[in-house]
Each structure stands twice: as structure tokens, then as C-alpha cells.
Design a protein that fits this description.
The chain has 14 helices and 10 strands. By secondary structure, it is α+β, with helices and mostly antiparallel strands. A hairpin with a 2-residue loop joins strand 3 (about 110-120) and strand 4. Helix 2 (about 145-150) runs antiparallel to helix 3. The chain binds NADPH dihydro-nicotinamide-adenine-dinucleotide phosphate. Belongs to the catalase family.
């Protein structure tokens, strides 16, 4: 006969606990005793249940799944996980909003994070993207300023539309991204109904050491579907965790969301002479110039078992690049290579890569040792070079080949201007050539609604000018809506 009794409660050291209900006291009514280690462990552990929330992308949800290669990309990259059609790699993805705190509502207007960890045979590859193909700024020195303008004021602790429009209208490179944010794509119906973009330009290198520039687009197989502004606001009051619930319940009922991976490939030499800087994160590569090719499919099929262990402690970093994939002269990407691992060391601790969700599914042979919460043993010798059989880098096989030539004086300057390097052109073509009449109508009312709330008349004047430069018709409609026209 099987024992149907529940297991005995224990301390975290595995020692059987004396009671689930009563602390140790001197007589039933007496004072509590310091030697009640079980009570003290419970209270002390509880006080330490939270780690600092992410300074951006705090609220999110995640799922496990796989990525499968569907086309031969070996002419472009030697990345092992992309090396043959049909090859599958385990992935973990985290979706998120950007500006809100851990308990904030899912359906607010915001870009959405779309961060993927591929557990490859050459270590973990992280593609830390968003649901937009571009970004608000192109130089990392403006990143914290941008985020400060989106979060809470120092004095009132309130978010402030005036601060947001003040920053945006003084940063014209933001127009393309703000256009998408203010469109209905700023309020996706679910995480399943949005695309994910690597956004940055990356480098691919093949076995012959030939280099290419690449952009990634994960296209939703569920179809794009967005809330209107009014619908998104209504859902906030009904279910602040709407997106989290939608993803978990869809996977639970066996409805597995999937995305098709398309890439755009630019020959290495084209970058030098292309009509605008292809590393500028505020611009897309028009499909007419570099047509997308479908190379894979990602499917999410398993919910996390422990939200904290798997989602809250998941640490994605654009610096995790595997052989065959490299970075590029995109200044935002180069800044992120530092800032992501830095925030993980602060938020989770220096050994965050040893946690089950973050650790690679291949052996680690690094020369790093010690630090808070290390539990994987380091092995002697703990230095290189050594004569005791420690790991050795295979430079002939893995030497740096995702490189580009750089030369020049040290300067603090914008990218060297090119013919089509303006801030408003691509936003204008999205508004005029891609959006439908309904998209444009909603865009105007979303902008007007947002810029009507606590925005000064001086900043509103700049808002109109900003959109007029994107498109005169858009500027006129915003002016009319704000009553400044
Ligand atoms: P295309 O007509 O070839 O592509 C337009 C792209 O826009 C498609 O990828 C489409 O893909 C996406 N799109 C459609 N509706 C919207 C919308 N309301 N908001 C945001 N994106 C939308 O044109 P081009 O490649 O020449 O690009 C024209 C403009 O389209 C660009 O200036 C840019 O603003 C926008 N765009 C371009 C992308 C690119 O990588 N080239 C990617 C996304 C947007 P889907 O509906 O599947 O997202």
C-alpha cells in the first residue's frame, strides 16, 4: 500500500519541523524564544523574498519552447544551432512592458520586451529584442535620460506625459519609434499577437570567415492583433495581468504560440556605402532593399514551474553571442553589451549564470571563481596559463572573426551623416504608405489623448511641430486635436 500521508514539513536544512502552527514560547502565553530556529528561518527568509526589480522591463512573463531551423543559412553563418534544417534548440523567452513596476498592468501603452535565450551547443545565445524594429535613441549616453523621462518624477512620484513629450520632441531621432508606440501596436492584444524584432544589426560569419550584416524579425503566426486605446485602458481595471494570464492559459490548453523567423541579410561591404547608416537603431532596412528570408520557427510549449526562479531570475544579455554571430558598430548595441550583465550582477548577484534558468546546457570551463552564492565548484588550477592541464582557448577554431575595421580620432559625435540619414523619413513612409486609414485615425487620437494630459502649451507646440516633420497631414491633424491649429 502506498503511504497517502503528505511529506513531513522540514526546515530548509531538511530537518523535520516541530509544528506548522505554533512558535516556541515559555508556557502557552509566554515570551518567544530565540532558539526557535524554525520560526526565525521562516521570518528571515520571508524578509528576503524579493530581489531588486529590473530598473526597466520589470513586469513580464515567460515560457519555454524550441527553435527549429527551416532553411539553410550555412552560406551566411557557422552558428552551430543554425547549421542544419530541422535542428532544434531549446529556448526560454520573456515578454515584458518597459516602464511599469513589477505589479503594473500589462495592457498599458508601452513597447514590449521580447527576449530569447537559445541554449545552444556553443553556450547560450541571447537575442534581447522588442516588439518594435527600432528604438527611441541611437546613442547609449541618452538611454538613462530616456528611461527617466518614462518613469516617475522625483518630486510627485507620478508618471508625467509632459516629461515624456519634452524628451521626445527634443530628441527628433525618437519620432519613428514614438509613431509605432502611439499607434495601436503600442497596445498589443496579447504577447502572442505581436512580432519580435532583434532591432539591432548583428554580424554573421560563415565557416570561410566571410561576414554579413543581419537583422532578425520574429513574425507572429497568431496574426497581429491590438487593443484600441480605450480597450487597453478598460482591461487594466478588469485584469492587470491580462497578458501573463493569456500566455500561460494558452500554453496550458495546448494552444502553442509560434513565430516565423525572418532575417534580412546585407553583404558586409554594402554597409560602407548604403544610403543611410545601417547601424542606426532608429531605422529599419527597407524590405525592398534587403528582402526578408524565412529561416526558422519558434514554438512555446511549456509554462514555468516557478515564476521567481525562472522568470524573475532570468538574465538576458546581448553580449551572449556564439561563434558565427557577432555585434556591429550599432552604438546602442555596444552600450548594451556592458549594461545588461552589469545589471544582473547588481540585481541577482555575480554568479547569476549558475542559476538553472541561466546556466548553459554545456559544460562551463571558465577561470572565474568565488563570489556570493556560488555553488558550482571551481577547479584547480584557477589561473591561466598553467602547467596542470587547465582549460585552454582554441584560438585556431574560436579566435575572434566577427570583427570590423575601425579608425579615427576619439570624438563625441553623431554618426557621420549620409544622404538619407534624416530623423523623420521612415516614420513618414510608415504613416503614408503602410498604415491604413483606421491606423492613422487611431494614431492621431492616441497622440492627442496622450499629449492633452498635463502637457504644457509650449511642449504641445513642439509636439505639433514634431509630427508635422513626420508628415504635414499628421501635424495638422494633431494640431487640430490639441486645439493649437
Ligand atoms: P514594406 O511595405 O515592405 O514593410 C512594411 C512593414 O511594416 C511590414 O514589415 C509590416 O509587417 C509592418 N507594418 C505594417 N503595419 C504596420 C504598423 N501599423 N505599424 C508598424 N509596422 C507595420 O515597407 P518597407 O520595408 O519599405 O518599410 C516601410 C516602413 O514600414 C518603414 O519605414 C517602417 O516604418 C515600417 N516597418 C518596416 C520594417 C522593416 O523591417 N523594413 C519592419 C516594421 C515596420 P508586419 O505587419 O508583419 O509587422
Amino acid at each position: 500500500m502506498t503511504d497517502s500521508r503528505p511529506p513531513v514539513t522540514t526546515t530548509d536544512a531538511g530537518i523535520p519541523a516541530p509544528s506548522d502552527e505554533h512558535s516556541l514560547s515559555v508556557g502557552p502565553n509566554g515570551p518567544l524564544l530565540l532558539q526557535d530556529h524554525y520560526l526565525i528561518q521562516k521570518m528571515a527568509q520571508f524578509n528576503r523574498e524579493r530581489v531588486p526589480e529590473r530598473v526597466v522591463h520589470a513586469k513580464g512573463g515567460g515560457a519555454h519552447g524550441y527553435f527549429e531551423v527551416t532553411a539553410d543559412v550555412t552560406p551566411y553563418t557557422k552558428a552551430a544551432f543554425l547549421s542544419e534544417v530541422g535542428r532544434r534548440t531549446d529556448v526560454f523567452i520573456r515578454f515584458s512592458t518597459v516602464a511599469g513596476e513589477l505589479g503594473s498592468a500589462d495592457t498599458v501603452r508601452d513597447p514590449r520586451g521580447f527576449a530569447i535565450k537559445f541554449y545552444t551547443e556553443d553556450g547560450n545565445y541571447d537575442l534581447v529584442g522588442n516588439n518594435t524594429p527600432i528604438f527611441f535613441v541611437r546613442d547609449p549616453s541618452k538611454f538613462s535620460d530616456f528611461i527617466h523621462s518614462q518613469k516617475r518624477r522625483s518630486d510627485t512620484h507620478l508618471r508625467d506625459n509632459n516629461m515624456q513629450w519634452d524628451f521626445w520632441t527634443l530628441s527628433p531621432e525618437s519620432a519613428h519609434q514614438v509613431l509605432i508606440l502611439m499607434s495601436d501596436r503600442g497596445t498589443p492584444r496579447s504577447w502572442r499577437n505581436m512580432n519580435g524584432y532583434g532591432s539591432h544589426t548583428f554580424m554573421w560569419v560563415n565557416e570561410a570567415h566571410e561576414r554579413f550584416w543581419v537583422k532578425y524579425h520574429f513574425k507572429t503566426e497568431q496574426g497581429i492583433d491590438n487593443f484600441t486605446d480605450a480597450e487597453a485602458k478598460a482591461v487594466v481595471s478588469v485584469d492587470p495581468d491580462f497578458h501573463l494570464r493569456d500566455l500561460a492559459s494558452s500554453i496550458q490548453r495546448g494552444d502553442r504560440p509560434a513565430w516565423r523567423l525572418e532575417v534580412q541579410i546585407m553583404p558586409f561591404a554594402d554597409a560602407a556605402t548604403y544610403r543611410f547608416n545601417p547601424f542606426d537603431l532608429t531605422k529599419v532596412w527597407p524590405h525592398g532593399d534587403y528582402p526578408p528570408i524565412t529561416i526558422g520557427r519558434m514554438v512555446l510549449d511549456r509554462n514555468p514551474e516557478d515564476y521567481f526562479a525562472e522568470v524573475e531570475q532570468a538574465a538576458f544579455e546581448p553580449a551572449n553571442l556564439v561563434p558565427g554571430i557577432g555585434s556591429s558598430p550599432d552604438k546602442m548595441l555596444l552600450g548594451r553589451l556592458f549594461s545588461y550583465p552589469d545589471t544582473h550582477r547588481y540585481r541577482i548577484g555575480p554568479n547569476y549564470l549558475q542559476l538553472p534558468i541561466n546556466r548553459p546546457k554545456v559544460p562551463v570551463h571558465s577561470y572565474n571563481k568565488d563570489g556570493a552564492m556560488r555553488y558550482q565548484p571551481s577547479h584547480d588550477p584557477v589561473y591561466a596559463p598553467n602547467s596542470y592541464g587547465g582549460p585552454r582557448a582554441d584560438t585556431a577554431r574560436y579566435g575572434e572573426d566577427a570583427v570590423w575595421r575601425a579608425d579615427g580620432d576619439f570624438v563625441r559625435a553623431a554618426y557621420t551623416p549620409r544622404r538619407d540619414d534624416d530623423d523623420f523619413g521612415q516614420a513618414g513612409s510608415l504613416y503614408r504608405d503602410v498604415m491604413s486609414d483606421i491606423d492613422r485615425e487611431h494614431l492621431v487620437s492616441n497622440i492627442v489623448g496622450h499629449a492633452s494630459q498635463d502637457v504644457t502649451s509650449e511642449v504641445q507646440r513642439r509636439v505639433v511641430e514634431y509630427w508635422r516633420q513626420v508628415d504635414p497631414d499628421l501635424g495638422a491633424r494633431v494640431a487640430k486635436g490639441l486645439g493649437t491649429g
